[in-house]
What does this fold into?
Amino acid sequence: MKKVIQGLPKSYFNYPMPVAVVGIKREDTRNLIPLVWHVQLSFDPPLYGISISPKRFSHDLVMEAGEFSVNFLPFEKVELINKIGSLSGREVDKIKELGVEIEEATAIDGFVLKDAYAAFECELIEHTAFDGDHTFFVGLVVATHYETNFYDEKTIIKVDRVKPTLYIGKYRYLTVDPESLKDFGK
Ligand SMILES: Cc1cc2nc3c(=O)[nH]c(=O)nc-3n(C[C@H](O)[C@H](O)[C@H](O)COP(=O)(O)O)c2cc1C
It folds into this structure.
């Protein structure tokens, strides 16, 4: 039986979503926040959007830093991702507390995660809240890091080599089944 309701309640109907861990550095403060509300907006110029609630410590940090990195961690790191998403940078230094290894970024005054199989360095170019309860930040991707062993020559992820991390809501995660792959590419 299908049901229709007015509007959209706080829900997870459109999940699973891939998880990105955003890294922000403002002066001596570094913080991490897992997000599922993120999306590429344009190839040329390369634009990447992230949506953050003003309740999060990371919200004002991104605004003030004007830069951020978007990191994709393998499923092996799911426990770490969940911890990062259960703590606030207001109370703890998550990088220190959780022993997260970082590397200096190359094109922004920030960092990327050592364990990320792909990461984007972004310069903040725009933000808007659309009168909603999250702010949508748009970044220009100025550098991309990726693990060459995990991508083919078309930059398609090799899911038999690396397991992406997906989220279905309420602190529940899963990954993809490589056996389910259907390749209709020429
Ligand atoms: C898998 C996952 C995805 C999340 N996605 C978002 C998101 O897209 N936007 C957001 O504002 N918060 C999201 N959150 C919540 C924040 O990650 C969480 O509140 C975090 O602890 C905030 O940290 P901060 O206060 O240090 O910024 C997500 C949490 C998890 C666990």
Remarks:
- The helical segments are 57-65, 78-84, 94-97.
